[in-house]
Amino acid sequence: MPRNSSFIYNQNIRSNVFQVLLVLGLLLGAWWLVDNTIFNLSAQGKSVGFNFLSQTSGFQISSTLGTWVMEYNVGSSTYLDVYFIGIINTFLVAVLGIVAATFLGFAMGIMRLSQNIVIRGFATIYVEVLRNVPLLLQLFFWYFAVLRSLPSRRGQIEIFEGAAGINITGLYLPAPIAQSGAGILGLAFILFVGIAIWLGRWAKKRQYETGQIFPAFWVGLGLIVFGTALVYLVMGQPIDWSFPVFKDTGPALRRGFQIGDGMVIVPEFIAVWLALSLYTAAFIAEIVRAGILAISKGQTEAAYSLGLRPGITLRLVIIPQALRIIIPPLTSQYLNLTKNSSLAVAIAYPELVSIFAGTALNQVGKEIEMIGMMMAVYLTFSLLTAAFMNWFNARVKLVER
Amino acid sequence: MSNNIIIGIGALVIGGAAGFFIGSGNEKIVEVEKIVEVEESQASTLDAVRAKGFIQCGVSQGLPGFSNSNDDGKWTGIDVDLCRAVAAAVFGDADKVKYTPLSAKQRFTALASGEIDILSRNTTWTMTRDTQLGLNFAGVNYYDGQGMMVPKSLGAKSSMELDGANICTNTGTTTELNITDYFRANGMSFNLVAFEKADEVVAAYDSGRCDVYTTDRSGLAAQRTKLTNPDDHMVLPEIISKEPLGPVVRQGDDSWFNIVRWALRAMINAEEMGISSANANSMVTDNNPAIKRLLGSEGNFGQELGLSNDWALNIITQVGNYEESYERNVGPNTPLKLDRGVNALWSDGGILYAAPVR
Predict the structure, then answer these.
(1) Is residue B358 part of a domain?
(2) Which of B155, B165, B196 lies nearest to residue A358, judging by beta carbons?
(3) Is the Cβ–Cβ distance between A47 and B42 less than 8 Å?
(4) Domain boundary among B216, B241, B266
(5) Could A39 and B34 be called an inter-chain contact, meaning their C-beta atoms sit closer than 8 Å?
């Protein structure tokens, strides 16, 4: 029997027609939404556009890395600067939070599997408490715990003979001031890091080929530290340090750390960073534990029977296999941490939601544009993190032959 | 088998797309529908309020004297009284109000989106808000100004001594801008720590994170009562800004705007004419035609607003006149201890002046 050749029965044509119809439908839907929004906004007497970004912003922002990098000045800086300050501050707390949460999470995850009941018990309590208390509460807890436990503004806890100090207004550290030649120092540092990475690869290759072990980690670290120090001295110390100045005499208002000397890490940042890292670490610990438990016990026994010590077994046999199980859920935790950083608005850390979608939005009132810009930032962060983790996952996954 | 599924899915998609095309195919119908929709959401808050049977009033998350809920969940304050007055005018029952506590940051979005009908949340009337945010200010129910509170131990007598201070405040308010302007104008440096909610500002200031707490002076008086030792703190004498606080409605709904505006004016006019909740019912038959017009026994003023003629009588008997509301919530006999000051009637040396009912 001949096939029915009418075109509605042609599989290709049919599927293509439906897809075109679907795309058209979606486009029309999007157009309808946009058109209606613009219509309603103009009915309310509101204009649409991004001109507000070049307006100057008239409010002060708590000094952080963001205001430092963007050189924020009230009266000349614009709302676009505010946007970038928000992005930098969000990025800073997200990246530092991810690093801290990863280290702590891996440590806790491995501790939960320890034979030692004290270590195991501690890690279990840590995980169960931290992951079962809402993050916002933890944020308040750390913020007010940090604030209440520190000396008042007129006092301080000295660190390194007054080179640094901490009180309720923040952690004061020496600030580096680049002099001529600092660029060369930076280049030298990058060069030494590159050499150390190359050394690590070379050592690994040699170990595969000849079985000889070379302590690449320690040699590399030494090279970076001493090499950079040597260049620093040879270049005539191209970095000046501005030390924090603490006064405990004079009128009450003038006492305490002086504005403009050294650099300050505000307690809001410390609290947000602590809360995000500790909270996410609890989840990462469980992911790590699950990953390790998923590796058959036979692997450990086989390694031991070959004479490998427990530490090396964990590092060279178990973790590499566990990583491919750990990485996908770990990526989700990284994304969660980045997005959770928006809770920092509650305790006055000047991140994106606080200063851009909060203060700035209230002043210019462009809800749709500004919320859209903010969503774009979180989306970009998350997609970049996911892309990096996918690349990493592809590298460590089991090579199937 | 799989062919059947594909055909099934195809039928669904085609059906959906066809429905969509029929729905949006006729441009004119869509245009008309859209305009009607917009008018409904823009132009008849009164009808919507009548249909649902209550007024949704946006208030603060707890500012004693202005809008604050007690242990039973009952809201009080002069901003709350304004919403109650509008409910009394519309429904003849001041209790037909539901409250939405809003942060400073959320408030305008909540109003613009239609989540609330009136924003009565110690909101400063500024030109930007009036012209750019799609809002209308229906009047001023408290003339305020921004001030600064410091611990007495600081030894400061004037805000001019505050160079280098750490200052706590709320995000999303005019206070951030005012304080920045003030310090810039006087060539002083400072560090601003801005929280989302007032309770966190109070807690942070109380713990010593900041030397200064800045907000409207009425707010300082209210928040000071929440500190561990209120007597250890003082409000500095300088007033650094004008903060006319008042109720806000959406732009483009003039009849609703008029109702809110005249509910406030009715309270002020009642004080001026000596009408209070105690004597309002007996004054309906007063000989003074101005009083008769306000209380609805002469003329048609309530119906012109789209309400009943006893609208103002209901406000005064159920909520009281402006003075009663003031004394009950923020006056010298309350924890806030605020004198009438500029908020007295124009005839008493203040600046409260309501247009006449005529």
Answers:
(1) no
(2) B196
(3) no
(4) B241
(5) yes
CA dihedral A96, B200, A67, A241 (to 10 degrees): -70
Indicate the pairing of strand A170-173 with strand A263-265.
Answer: antiparallel
d(CA A281, CA A104): 6
CA–centroid distance for B349 within its chain? 25
> Which residues in chain A are contacts of B115 at CB distance < 8 A?
none
Residues B63-119: tens digit of each pLDDT: 889 999 988 889 999 999 999 999 999 999 999 999 999 988 889 989 988 999 999
> Within a domain: residue B356?
no
Nearest-CB residue to B251 (from A25, A44, A74): A44
Domain encompassing residue B65 = 45-143+244-348
Q: Give the range among A3-17, A276-290, B118-132 with minimum mean pLDDT.
A: A3-17
- ipTM score of complex: 0.77
A62 interfacial to chain B (CB closer than 8 Å): yes
Handedness of CA B6, B7, B10, B12 (dihedral sign): negative
A-B contacts at Cβ under 8 angstroms: 158
pTM over cut 0.80? no
Q: How far apart are CA B65 and CA B224, in angstroms?
A: 12
Q: Token pair of B337, please?
A: 């201890």
Same domain, B74 and B155: no
Q: What total of structural domains would you count in chain B?
A: 3
Q: Do A59 and B176 touch (CB under 8 A)?
A: yes
Place of tokens 């006449």: B356
In tens, the pLDDT along A123-144 reads: 999 999 999 999 999 999 999 8
